Amino acid sequence: MFPQILFQNKRVRIIFSNLVLSLLLLVTPLIGDRWVYFYILLLSITSYFLTSWSFKQYLYGIKLVNLFVLPVFLVASVAIFLVQSDISFWLQLLVVLAFAVVNYVIELSQNIFNVSEVRNIPLLRAAQTVGYLSTLGVSFLGFFLIYNSHMSVFMSSFLVLVISFFIYLQALWQIELKENLSPEVLQGSLVSSLLTSQIGFIIGFWPLTPVGAGLALTTVVYTCLGLVQHKIKDSVTRRTVMEYVFLGLSVFALLIVVLSG
């Protein structure tokens, strides 16, 4: 009876979900090479269902996808990072603790998006800021891990295409928060992810470190997101386009010069 009453609180469910995921993440480096990526797949699926259990209400339409992109991508990325990196248990514990804090904040913001589609929430603007920053952070981690895996440029660019599409999709949807995708959001996600993938393909031939490649593609995400968001809001001006393009190209060029391997 007590657990049933306790888990009626949404924040308690979110905290419990993060605790379970954190414990499962700590086990990841102990899984053998043969089964580790299958385990990470199961961990990602577990993250989806635990997060949906945490939210419970108002889950329908495109929210069944967009609300879970960041939580699922984050847990999968952290798990792969723990597998790829050769760090001590205490550093692994620190990484998992950081994951728990970040994922908790992400899930709180996603919950606000979930409820805001039904009724007005005063914290919506703050949640959108958190969502934007989380999008950039998860993008960097995902791109870094792709290029740290040293796979072929074709496979790398394909993975960049898939990941960036869902990254753009959920980020642009946060502007409208509708039950169904608008043509502007879908078109913007497709074009932006194709552009990001093409640049990722080119980066594969340059002597960039994985960190440099991750930061470079995150700069592309930042630029595309900014421009498409202004287009959806119908607030695009010549000055806005020039500012985003200039900043994006400047940072991109600086990263290539400084972080080349």
Automatic annotation (TrEMBL):
Signal peptide: none annotated. The keyword Transit peptide does not apply. The keyword Ribonucleoprotein does not apply. It comes from the Bacteria. Keywords: Membrane, Transmembrane, Transmembrane helix. The chain crosses the membrane at residues 12-31, 37-55, 64-83, 89-106, 126-147, 153-173, 185-206, 212-229, 241-260. This is Uncharacterized protein. It comes from Candidatus Woykebacteria bacterium RIFCSPHIGHO2_02_FULL_43_16b.
